[in-house]
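Field log, afternoon session.

UNIT: design team B
ACTIVITY: writing a sequence onto a fixed backbone
BACKBONE:
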């Protein structure tokens, strides 16, 4: 077996497992390992339909004779960001919301983060498998370490923060039933906009803003998510979810 396969799998999953250990400490009443594993795996599995959906949407977008900046914005905000945020939510909706272990508001954030980490894990592995010229084993390991670390503090972290944000709005919607749909849509839109702006700034914008905007987004989201976890822990433990 090609030694690159286990190497890429390990360094692809490592960022997700590290963040998983961090986020699980936020839950006062930990979920079962079985549920965490199930949501993590489904988060990874959903990466494939997202990939094909993005290819289809990107193909349609390429046929539009619009301003290149508009097309680029639509690509990063809609084709990439929206599809990823909504599919990660679908994992939690289908596999966790109606489960008996989903019994407190903070679980919405926890399960959304776990789904995001499963998604990011497979995404990282696929990213590591991108073609490279023949290089030595040491150079290959160094490349894997660098990419793994960069995605640990960047893409993987962003996935957890955006999904946690959606989870927060979802949890609040359980209490504010009359505003449930508005709160849910708000969470998806905000997560999509921040996710899209992060990607758009890195891939399209030049100069200092290429770094300033992503860092500002990560820091702002990190503070919001930390505050969200604290607020949800104070809410009533048992939450009845209306599907």
């Amino acid at each position: 077996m090609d030694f690159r396969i286990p190497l890429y799998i390990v360094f692809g999953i490592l960022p997700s497992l590290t963040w998983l250990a961090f986020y699980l400490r936020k839950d006062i009443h930990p979920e079962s390992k079985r549920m965490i594993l199930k949501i993590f795996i489904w988060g990874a599995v959903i990466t494939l339909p997202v990939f094909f959906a993005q290819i289809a949407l990107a193909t349609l977008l390429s046929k539009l004779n619009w301003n290149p900046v508009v097309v680029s914005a639509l690509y990063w905000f809609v084709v990439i960001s929206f599809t990823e945020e909504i599919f990660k939510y679908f994992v939690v909706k289908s596999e966790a919301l109606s489960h008996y272990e989903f019994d407190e508001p903070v679980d919405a954030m926890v399960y959304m983060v776990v789904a995001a980490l499963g998604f990011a894990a497979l995404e990282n592995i696929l990213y590591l498998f991108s073609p490279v010229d023949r290089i030595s084993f040491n150079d290959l390991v160094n490349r894997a370490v660098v990419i793994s670390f960069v995605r640990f503090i960047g893409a993987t972290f962003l996935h957890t923060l955006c999904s946690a944000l959606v989870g927060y709005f979802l949890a609040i919607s359980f209490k504010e039933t009359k505003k449930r749909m508005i709160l849910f849509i708000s969470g998806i839109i905000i997560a999509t906009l921040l996710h899209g702006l992060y990607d758009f700034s890195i891939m399209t914008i030049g100069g200092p803003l290429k770094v300033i905007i992503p860092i500002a987004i990560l820091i702002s989201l990190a503070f919001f998510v930390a505050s969200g976890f604290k607020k949800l822990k104070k809410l009533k433990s048992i939450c009845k979810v209306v599907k």
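LOG NOTE: The chain has one domain: 4-233.
NEXT ACTIVITY: expression trials, pending approval
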